[in-house]
Amino acid sequence: MTDLDFPFVVENQTGLTRMSDVLNWLATESESFKHQLAKAGALLFRDFPIQTAEDFDKFSAAFGYGDFTYKDSLSNAVRINFTPRVFSANEAPSDVEIFLHHEMAQTPLSPDKIFFCCLSAADEGGATPLCRSDWLYAKFKERHPKWTHQFATLGLKYNMRMPAETDEYSGQGRSWASTLSVGTVAEAEERLDALGYSWRWEEDGSLITTTPVMPAVKQLLDGTESFYNQVLAAHLGWKPVGQEQQEPLTYGNDESIEDEALYELANIANEFVLPLEWKDGDVALVDNHRVMHGRYPFSGSRKRSVIVCLARDVKK
User: What is the CA radius of gyration of the chain?
Assistant: First the structure.
């Protein structure tokens, strides 16, 4: 399963020094990179002259994917926009680990592709772990067919807390008004109803939401299956929500997920994790359906700056 280069590295072998030359090069090469992405799951572009969010915006746009903006997403992470298409990866404090996940897989609206760009690498730490979820699922299915069947047939429900006000110190601190792109309680409830969520309001003004049943497994275009969800992130990093201290994740029938299954998933994922150690100017293109990502804690006087652009396969 792991005989492919992961991620597949594309180096600036011709020494392109101007963004205009890079964009001309991508105009002829981007389609071949898309084909490579379908096999490798992630591409790393290294030593290209990318220094600003605007450079990164142009680089990612050259692939011709459709836009998936932060404003229109249901992401619960706090982010800062640099251009309409480009925003910070996450504003969570540097000592917080963000565990492996598929971007927004806990929502009905998730991106197909993710571009990452490192404008400034941390002094210590700050790597982005990557994990092939198709490899993880195949190994989990081989070792534990019963648990695999339960995930595949029952699906998942996510219980999430949206605070009344944005909490920039939390990895899940985006307010309900911002997350849902609404201004009033009535508008929030209307949006949630349209999405198929159930919900309740807490005394502190926060909102507890429960998703409809979401798939735990996704069939990819090549016929393989991917463990496409937020199970590891929820198991390792999410806290019980609301006054009732609900578990953040259950099977789709509301039953608890076996602790042993969660531990085994985490152990198998560790077999396939590859930490992407950033260099300034790096760009990574990740297939969000095939590959999970996260963020390791970091430290040092040099500010880590990794920005992202999310994309759809088809322009809308």
Answer: 19
